[in-house]
Design a protein that fits this description.
This protein has two helices and ten strands, in the order H-H-E-E-E-E-E-E-E-E-E-E. The chain is of the alpha+beta class and 196 residues long.
Length: 196
Amino acid sequence: MNLRLIGISAGVLIILSLPLAGAIAGPDFAGPDDGKGGGLFSTLGLSDSPHSPDSKGSAPRKPAGSPAAAGSRQPGPVEQPRTDSTCGPEVSSPHGVEAQTCVLVAEGRTWGRSYYRNTSGRALDAVLTVMGPAGRTVQILCAVGPGDEPGLCETPREESAGTPDSYSAVAEFAVPDDEGQLLLRSGSNSPVPGDG
C-alpha cells in the first residue's frame, strides 16, 4: 500500500512540475535569421509591427508573467529638460576663494547659480543676485563653509521674462561680520581676465 501511495504522489508531482519547468525554460528567443518578426525583439514586444510579413500573420510572443504580456509596456528613462547656461569665467582671490557664476534657463524658468570653493579657512557669506528685464531682481544669501570641497549657491527658479541674454547674475563672497570685507565678486557676464 505504501508503494502505491508513493507512485501516486510521484505522478502528481510530475504533473504539477510541468508548468514550472516550462516557466523556468522561458520563451524561445531563437527567431528568423534576418532578425525581423521573431526572436528576442518580438518576444519583448520591440518589433516594428506585430503583423509584419515575416511574422506570418501572428502577433509576437510575450513571456508569461511579464508586464508586456499584461498589455502594458515598461516606460523608458525620463528625458531631462534641456538647460541653457550663460557663465562668466572662473575667478579667484588671493584670500582662497574661487567661483564661477551662471544664469540658467530651462522650461520657461530662469535662475542664478554660483559654483565656489572656499579654502580661506573661515566661513563666509555669499550673496547671489539675479537681475532681469524691467528691474526684476532675485537675491539669496548662502552660508559658505570653509574647506576644499566645491559647493554651490542657487536662487529660486522664477518664470522667465524676456530673452536669456537680458539676465545677469553676480555673486559676492564676504566675511560675515560688521565690516563685511568683500573677498571676491563673480559675474555671469564678467569679461575673461586679460580680455582688454
